[in-house]
Amino acid sequence: MSETSRHPRRSRRTVARHGELSSPHPFGTILKIFGVVIAVALVSGLGVAAYAAYDLAASFADGGVELEGQGAVPPDIGAIEGGVDLLLVGTDECEPEYASIFGDRCKGPDAEGQLNDVNMLVHIADNPRRVTVVSFPRDLMIPLPSCTREDGSVSPETSKSQINEAWSRGGLSCAAKTISDLSGENIPFAAKVSFGNVINITEAIGGVDVCIGNGGIRDPHTAIDWPAGPRTISGVEALQFLRTRHGLENGSDLARISNQQQYMSSLARKLVSEEVLSDPAALYRLATTAVDNITPSQSLANASTLVQIAMAVRGVPFEDINFVQYPVVDDPADPNRVVPHYELADKLWAALAANEPIELTNDQNNTGGVVTVDPQPTEQPVETAPDPSATGTPAPTETAVPLDDIPGQSAADQTCSAGNLRADG
User: Fold this and answer.
1) Calpha distance 51→37 (Å, rounded)
2) pLDDT digits 0-9 by tens, 137-169
3) What does the pLDDT average to over 351-363?
4) How would residue 20 be classed by pLDDT, with cut points 50, 70 and 90?
5) What is the mean pLDDT of the chain?
6) Do 130 and 16 touch, CB atoms closer than 8 A?
C-alpha cells in the first residue's frame, strides 16, 4: 500500500521544539488572540478591566458551535491538565465591507460560499509544556467524513476531496471532525476567524512586524507592491500578507503557509512584548476585539476554559513553540493538488504523542515562501558560579527528534518573505 493511499485512524497526544532565541515569559502565539489575552486581564487583577474581560469571555457562549463526537472538557478553572488540542479555522467568506479585496472570489454564484482555507491544529503538550501549530494545506486531498449540519441534515463521506470543502459540508464541527480523523487527535476546542476579522484583530494590537526579502513583493491578486525590508502590517495589509501566494517565490499554497508562519512567529513576539503585555488598555482592547471577531465552539465559549488554556501555555519559551506544515507529496492525479505523506506524518504524530522535542532541520530557504535572516539573533548565555552543594550529576537532557523533510519554524526564528517581483504576479 502506498504512502498516499493509506489512511489510518490514530490516537495521539502532545508537542515540540526548536529555535535560536530563548524567551523568559512567552505565551502561546495564536491562542493569545483570544484565550491568553483575556486570561492576562483576569489573573493579573486589573479590577474593572478584569471583570469586564470575564464578562466578554462569558458572552462567547452566544453562538457557540457544538463539535460532533468530541470528548468532554475539564470543568475546573486553573491550568488545564494533560495535552490539549484546539483547531483554528480561517474562512474566506465575502463580507460586504471587504469583498473588493477578494476580487473574482467574491463575484458570481460562488460569492456566498465559505471555504476553510486556513486550518491550524494547536497542540499543547503537558510536562513539559510545549506548543506545536500544524498547518494543513488548503489544496490537500483527503477522505472527508460524514458530518451533521446545523439543520440536522447529514453530508455523506467522500473517498477523496479537498480539505477546504469541509466547512461547506458542516461548518466548524465538520472542519474539526476532518482534522481529527486525519491526525488521530481528539479536538475538544475549535474557533473560526474570517479573513475580515483578521483585519480588526491586527489593528487592535497595533500591527505585526514582518520582513520582506528577495527585493520585494508584487502581487496584483492581493494588491501588494511592497519594497524589500522590514514592514509593520496592520488591518488590510495584514490580510493581504496572509493571503498572498503569487507574490512569493514559487507561488504555491505551501509557500503561503511558510510565509504565514513568519507572521505567526512575529505575532508571538509582539504579544509578549512590553508594548502589549504590560499595557492593560492594549490587552483589554485586544480582548474586546477578539470576542467580537471569533466564533468559538461551545466547549470554548466560557471564561473558565479560556483561562485554563491560557495558564497552560503562558510559560512556554519561544523555542518550544513550533509552526509546522503537515507533510505532503504531489497528488499523482493532479499536479495542482497534494496528498498526505503518511510516513512523515507518522513521525510527527509519534513525536507529539511522546512529547519529544522536535528539531525543524528542513532548510527554510527551500520552501519558496521565506528566506532566513542571517545571522539569527541570539541571547547570550548567562554565566553563573558553580554551586558548591551540587552533586556533580548533570540534569537529564532530551534528544530532539529531527524532522528533516517537514517545513516549519519556531517562534524564536526570524525569517523574511521570499518575495517575487514578476510583473504578472
Assistant:
1) 13
2) 999 999 999 999 989 999 999 999 999 999 999
3) 90
4) very low
5) 75
6) yes
Nearest to 345 by CA among 134, 87, 118: 134
For residue 109, count CB atoms less than 10 angstroms from its CB and return exposed for 0-12, middle for 13-18, buried for 19 or more.
Answer: exposed
Q: Residue 55 burial (CB < 10 Å; 0-12/13-18/19+)? A: exposed
- Name the residue among 120, 50, 129 with its Cα closest to residue 91: 120
pLDDT, tens digit (0-9, with 9 covering 90-100), for 169-194: 999 999 999 999 999 999 999 988 87
Average pLDDT over residues 115-139: 90
Q: Which residues lie below 8 Å from residue 363, measured CB to CB, with a gap of 6+?
A: none
Angle at CA of residue 203, ends 202 and 205, nearest 5°: 70
Residue 1 CB coordination number (10 Å): 7
Q: Which of these, 407, 399, 402, lies nearest to 341 by C-alpha position?
A: 407
Give the angle subtended at the CA of 21 by the CAs of 272 and 38, to the nearest 5°.
15
- How many CB atoms lie under 10 A from the CB of residue 48? 8
The span from the CA of 3 to the CA of 381, in Å, is 43
Q: Which residue has the cell 483585519?
A: 199
Residue 166, phi-psi category: left (phi > 0), alpha (psi -120 to 50), beta (remainder)? alpha
Q: What's the mean pLDDT in 313-330?
A: 87
How many CB atoms within 10 Å of residue 368? 20
Residue reference for cell 461548518: 171
CA distance linking residue 254 with residue 295, whole number of Å? 26
Q: How far apart are CA 197 and CA 95, in angstroms?
A: 10
- The residue type of 412 is A
The mean pLDDT value for 391-414 works out to 74
Choose among 122, 22, 125, 132: nearest CA to 79.
125
For the chain, give the longest Cα–Cα distance.
75
pLDDT mean over 301-308:
68
> Rounded distance, CA 261 to CA 409, Å?
7
Distance in angstroms (rounded) separating the CA atoms of residues 54 and 342 = 42
